[in-house]
């Protein structure tokens, strides 16, 4: 398998888990078939459409855009629930992540200064409730308020309210920015323990870097020169897709729990194995595409798989349910 940079030890830790996993394994034959599908039928979203997909006609300065992406990913976690949180506005109606993008766009249109660190530092809970209003209440509401306050306070303390200052301080290195993010914002820290070893995933920190790349690339600005250091973003949708494609294979007891919609506790061995398997499966798909002469970094393959997961009827096996702010 191709050896990619592993600056935060995510790849090595996930390999450690998979060498000991009891309930999840990777089907190598399916890895190769999915790699062929990714090469022949790419569906990952075009970077050039990122700003339109998220902001529509809203125009932001570079500083505002960087702060917007930070706010987006500070809130980008735990959308499942019954009933699902849904946002409808101006003819659009979405749940999950896309509902969040609608809510933030609506907030800016309504005059809420969500890209202003001073506002975020002491944002009233009643404002957050109005910004995130929809059908039912978004899960983990109090944690989302805390995350916004943390973002504002940290930016004011260390970067004069400008996340773009932090981005530029990384000097073009996605890996360096990842380290800055998890040092600056404790809510972006995402680690687990497995067999007495700390297992880092850093899902939201990594997707924040990926979103920054896409947002600024759509303006013709290249921020990073080492995006291949990013791994897949270990959430609950991508492993669901990998399972449906046959790449991830679950033990009978795990399948039974998923079919029963049983919750997997945060940090449980089952949750850690699913997330580590997601990382390693995407690494192996990336290696298979590279062997076929097509260079697709893991984060781009993750985009592809996540987009597949948005299709109706894509999966017959429910995604794993874990109450967490990590993803």
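^ Assign residues to that structure.
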């Amino acid at each position: 398998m191709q050896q990619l940079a592993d600056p935060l030890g995510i790849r090595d830790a996930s390999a450690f888990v998979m060498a000991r996993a009891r309930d999840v394994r990777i089907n190598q034959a399916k890895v190769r078939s999915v790699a062929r599908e990714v090469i022949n039928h790419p569906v990952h979203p075009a970077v050039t459409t990122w700003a339109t997909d998220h902001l529509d006609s809203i125009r932001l300065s570079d500083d505002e855009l960087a702060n917007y992406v930070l706010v987006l990913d500070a809130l980008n976690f735990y959308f499942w629930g019954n009933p699902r949180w849904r946002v409808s506005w101006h003819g659009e109606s979405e749940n999950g992540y896309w509902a969040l993008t609608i809510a933030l766009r609506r907030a800016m249109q309504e005059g809420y200064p969500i890209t202003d660190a001073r506002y975020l530092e002491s944002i009233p809970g009643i404002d957050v409730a109005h910004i995130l209003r929809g059908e039912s209440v978004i899960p983990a509401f109090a944690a989302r308020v805390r995350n916004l306050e943390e973002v504002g306070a940290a930016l004011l303390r260390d970067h004069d309210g400008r996340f773009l200052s932090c981005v530029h301080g990384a000097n073009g290195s996605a890996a360096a920015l990842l380290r800055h993010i998890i040092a600056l914002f404790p809510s972006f820290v995402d680690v687990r323990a497995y067999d007495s070893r700390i297992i880092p995933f850093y899902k939201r920190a990594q997707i924040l870097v990926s979103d920054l790349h896409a947002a600024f690339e759509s303006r013709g600005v290249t921020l990073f020169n080492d995006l291949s250091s990013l791994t897949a973003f270990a959430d609950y949708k991508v492993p669901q897709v990998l399972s449906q494609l046959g790449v991830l294979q679950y033990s009978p007891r795990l399948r039974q729990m998923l079919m029963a919609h049983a919750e997997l506790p945060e940090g449980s061995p089952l949750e850690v194995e699913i997330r580590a398997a997601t990382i390693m499966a995407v690494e192996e798909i990336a290696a298979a595409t590279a062997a076929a002469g097509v260079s697709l970094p893991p984060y781009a393959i993750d985009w592809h798989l996540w987009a597949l997961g948005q299709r109706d009827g894509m999966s017959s096996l429910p995604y794993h349910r874990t109450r967490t702010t990590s993803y």
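Residues 10-309 form one domain.
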